[in-house]
Amino acid sequence: MNSIFNLKRFYVVILALILGVMSGSCDTDELEDPSLQNVDNELALTISDEKLELNERFIGNELGFNWSSGTNRGTGAAIEYTLEIDHAGNDFSDPLITLADGVKNQYSAAIDHGTLNHRLLNSGLEAGNSYELEARLTAEVTDASVEDQVSKMTFSVTPYKPVSSRLFIVGDASPNGWNISNAAELTSGNQRGVFIYEGKLSEGNFKFAVSRDDCWCQDFYTKHPDNDGMIVYNEGGSGEDVQWTISEEGNYRLRVDLLNKTIEITPVEDAPFSSLYIVGDATESGWNIDNPASFTQSELDPFVFNYEGNFAPGEFKIFAGPMGDWCGDWYRPQVDDKALESGAVIQAAGCEPDNTWLVTDETVGRYRISLNTATNTIRFTKVNLHIVGDAGPNGWNINNPAPMEYVNGDFVYTGPLKAGELKFSKYQGDWCDGEWINSAENGQSITNTEFITTFGCDGPDNKWKLSADDAGDYEIRINLDTETMTVTAL
User: Fold this and answer.
1) The domain made up of 168-267 is a member of CATH 3.40.50.360
2) What H or E segment, with its residue span, contains residue 18?
3) Domain edges within the chain
4) SS3 call for 291
5) With 74 labelled, which of 47, 50, 200, 364 sits at a CA distance of 20 to 30 A?
6) With pLDDT > 70 as the criterion, what percentage of the chain qualifies?
7) Global pTM?
8) Domain 277-383, CATH 3.60.15.10 — does that match?
């Protein structure tokens, strides 16, 4: 009898312990860090670099912040953290940057140098000047009986002036001479700050301008006085006007690296074709070789041809002519039914082997194709549209902007928009690296669907603007072929 009684008492004790654990779990309000219960745990903020001189060559580097948990004074309530950056001595009523906004169970935040520089310049800070900034971390306990905790620290940042996102060649050696308002533009390379010119140069001199503004007081890049392979940045036309000299007329390839301030000048041969076309049921041309859609030959590199368009399930290849001749010159993949992968291509005349690229249901979408006839290589780049701005889901995060969905030629976003501004990017990575869809006028209502296309940081940096009354759910559709946009409030 006693053993049965003791066994019952054992089960009662075990049950009480289980209920106690369950009760304690319910009171934590998403609490994961046990250090929050330590009433003596002081909130403390640290930074990875207290004196930061930003450099465009290292835009991927990050400025990092870490902090201790603080305390909830033993209440079991969660803590929400907000991290803001402002000028030292300001009251944070309108902070320069907000890195964390009411996050829980998070004890670090970071911003890459490129984004930090962009945000600081957009806030009116000047490149080359050092600024004292202050980071403020606020810990707000979800239990109102516990007062907010604050930790601050100061640090200095020196922004840089980004290199130009466009570059133009001027001089009597260049295609359009000294006519700066009609100067030939170089092509952006695969690396930030790298520009390519490939084409004819005459006997004479040349240098590089950053725009077609008809003013010789603008910024120029000129030759280093002691080194033909180095360039010098002349802000506002200042400095020695040393130019490069072409002694023999011909086709040349120029590779200009503004970040490392180098230039390579290489003679090249003539391009094998002056026109290329896309053909196939995956494309807008269909199987029409009498009037197919054409590539665009680069003005600066005649060996390079570019095409951008929507691709449906099907096949395609690249035609070099003559029109109507199925056994004419073609560029084809090395194997049949090749996926849309960058690599080598085969150039040959004739009907066989009739290899084609294959677009599947999984790979449909909009692509940019670049074919280099000098190296017989092709590059495929998937084109996407993203929402960028504090009115959108991911804010001003150009490294991870909110993607739109490709649907039968349209880019579609369905979801909430907040009060704020937005625009659309065709890329992600850095502010000056690609094309933008901007509103026709700055501050334009989201219901006004007129837009323009801009490149890099050249602007105008127009944005759509939503008021608090405009916030809500929307469907946005953009078609780049028809250059139309529709916005529907849901």
Assistant:
1) no
2) helix 2-26
3) 34-158, 168-267, 277-383, 386-489
4) coil
5) 47
6) 92
7) 0.56
8) no
